[in-house]
Specification:
Blueprint (H helix, E strand, L loop, with lengths): L3 H4 L9 E6 L5 H14 L4 E6 L14 E4 L20 H19 L3 E5 L9 H12 L6 E6 L10 H15 L2 E4 L22 E3 L18 E5 L7 H18 L2 E5 L6 H11 L5 E4 L5 H7 L2 E4 L3 H10 L3 E3 L9 H11 L4 E2 L7 H11 L13 H13 L8 H4 L2
Parallel strand pairs: 1-2, 1-4, 2-3, 4-5, 5-6, 6-7, 8-9, 8-11, 9-10, 11-12, 12-13
Length: 407
Amino acid sequence: MLDPRATGRAPERIRPVLLFYCQHASGIGQLTRAFALAHALAAPFRVIMLSGAPVPRGVPVPDSIEVIDLPPLAGDAEPDPASGAPSWDLTAAQLQRHGLVSHALRRLHPAMVLVELFPFGHRPLTGEILSLIRAARGQQHPARIVCSLPDILPDTRPQQQHHDDRARWLAHRYFDAVLVHADPGYVRLEESFRPSKPLAVPVHHTGYVLPVRPAAPQVPREPRILVSAGGGSTGFPLFVSALEAYARLAPATGLGLRIVAGPFLPEPDWAALQRLAHGRSGVELVRQVPDMVDEMCRARLSISQFGYGTALDIVVARVPALVVPHAAPGRNEQVRRAETFARLGAVRHLPAESLDSARLSTAIEETLQFSPRPAAPALDGAGKAATLLMQIAGFGRRRSRESRHHA
């Protein structure tokens, strides 16, 4: 049988293999985006995801893909492990991950390797990822290597220029293309990535990536305020401030308060939140919900952090929204996203450094009078990415770059 990569097109019953490396450590929005993208790619490809962190309970894995679970890393291997994964012995975990990745390559011979974030992020995993890339390039039929990025990269790291220049070199050395899952009319890669020399690798802005879901429900808004923080790993300060602000506002507004804590909120914080909310009239705590868009469609007002997935939920639900983006050293992408959407009139923005119950109370009162402008970014990123990757994989015009990629 002819190798499908040699024919210029995929046979009807044989899909080329796409290996998707995903170290989803920064929250549930990242995982949701990865699953939505993988599901769309499963039409033209056989998609196998190398999952570097546990999938939280309640997050469905698409039936259309296969998942290879890699042992989770903690401590030095990944500086921001929001998954709450149990710690393994680092050396043992790294060895087992290497064995699983090597076995997958030998068994699958992928036509495409899609790597989330690297080389623009995941620097502690450089050795593991480059080993994967070099092995995939060294196959009899070298795999194409593509990077998958969110809309905005953090740019407050120490030695940011050095980081960007290094990422540019690695991208030029090892990658065939970079996919940015954003609408270029809203944000472009060069706004948060500024190497000393231009990036030579082709960059494609695909549009935002949304999970497949029914149309947003047309339901009356209920008299309640919804508070959320994506996966919840950094949401505790927002939840506490929301409880305090609600105590000030409840008599005047007549609204209830529903807090969706998220699966990544640490258990001690969840227990503390339950104690703080105990006995408060009108307050409801929920650990996790199956459909955040549905929650937002029913709310009079949404208060949230502003990760990638939350931003798109707000756009789809068209809910009046007050966003308090999470910010930390080296992690300012939520702030930049909030500034962009607030400038367009889609949300109201309260900086995290201004978060206390008094300021939040005032912002809530103002946002209750706020009518968001309809935001209409391109939301077809998953389908467009699938088309682009088919072309890059060689089902269309191929680019011969193997010689300079063998290492």
